[in-house]
Write a structure and sequence with these properties.
Blueprint: E1 6-10, H1 15-26, E2 30-35, H2 43-49, E3 55-59, E4 73-76, H3 83-88, H4 91-109, E5 118-122, H5 147-166, E6 170-175, E7 177-179, H6 188-197, E8 202-205, E9 211-216, H7 217-230, E10 235-239, E11 244-246, H8 247-257, H9 262-265, E12 266-269, H10 284-287, H11 297-306
Parallel strand pairs: 1-2, 1-4, 2-3, 4-5, 5-6, 6-10, 7-9, 8-12
Antiparallel strand pairs: 9-11
The structure holds nicotinamide-adenine-dinucleotide.
Nicotinamide-adenine-dinucleotide (NAD) is lined by residues 10-11, 13-17, 35-38, 40-41, 61-63, 77-81, 96, 100, 122, 124, 152, 175, 177-178, 184.
Length: 314
Amino acid sequence: MSRAEIVVVTGGLGFIGKHFVRQCLDKGHFVKNIDRISYAADRLVNAEFSQSSNYRFHEANICTLDFLPECDIFVNFAAESHVDNAITNARKFCETNFLGVQNCLELIRRKHEHERPRFIQISTDEVYGDIRDGSHAEADPLVPSNPYAATKAAADMLVKSWGRTFGVSWNIVRPTNNYGTHQYPEKLIPKSAWRMKRGLPAIMHGDGSYIRSWLHADDTVRGISTVIEKGRRNQIYNIGSTEERSNIQVLRRIAQILSIEERAAFVAASDRSGQDIRYSLDDSKLRALGWSQMKKFDEEIIEIVEKLDTSRFV
Ligand SMILES: NC(=O)c1ccc[n+]([C@@H]2O[C@H](COP(=O)([O-])OP(=O)(O)OC[C@H]3O[C@@H](n4cnc5c(N)ncnc54)[C@H](O)[C@@H]3O)[C@@H](O)[C@H]2O)c1
């Protein structure tokens, strides 16, 4: 986005969405943020963004949204995003992650051809399922292991079909596991750090051997902007990370930062069903556009743990 553009962002009060909104405002773009303010939304950041004359907020559910304001780009972050919740009750995931996307695509399709924004769907590495060795490329088959991943994979199919059948212009971006500041405390790093800081052991799924690649939200939103600015239309782009860690390594690092002995730092709990062993993305397609990962996990995690934002924890 080289000139000032009007960007509709959905889920812009969520963890990654708010990093993206901030980046757009910093670049001088106009942002219309549509968020239904679920438990995962950050209300405080809305007040911060509202200081900008380029920012508008609309409280709405993407499943029932019936009007799309004029815009150049439509970036859909809105989702139910926590795998544990999907295992307990998948219905909301089907609604927001699948039917919500279908509704957004329809709103775009109904616009006059020359007034249609490009649709950017924020997908996930989880759509590929796990991989023991090597990395998944964009053309690999989708083999989701849990209901969350299944709804995200299904949404990707919708996006591609609305492109082919109705001529909606799109990109799908598949980032790997994100970390960063102000993440809702249901996720591994803030949840574990908060428990350890309160003198409680963090809870580790299984033996902690599951491997994730960790990507800072700032790197993710730069990757999304790279796709918007330089990516080819109707293409999928992975955003990967070279920072692979097993869950037990992450917990050990948090304990080390907080100077807590390992035996007091975490306890093993029963395994999450459908747990993927390892995710890994081949993101050479995005790197060819000039993007690269800037943030180093072992450095960034220090401030995230030490200055943990607990304002939304209770
Ligand atoms: N967090 C990660 O590690 C990660 C990794 C890869 C991909 N993703 C994808 O990135 C996107 C953002 O993830 P996140 O971690 O920021 O999520 P999040 O759960 O922190 O935030 C989701 C936001 O969407 C809003 N929302 C939920 N349902 C809505 C609806 N029906 N209508 C309007 N708003 C709604 C919530 O209020 C919240 O503000 C998601 O699509 C997710 O699948 C996340």
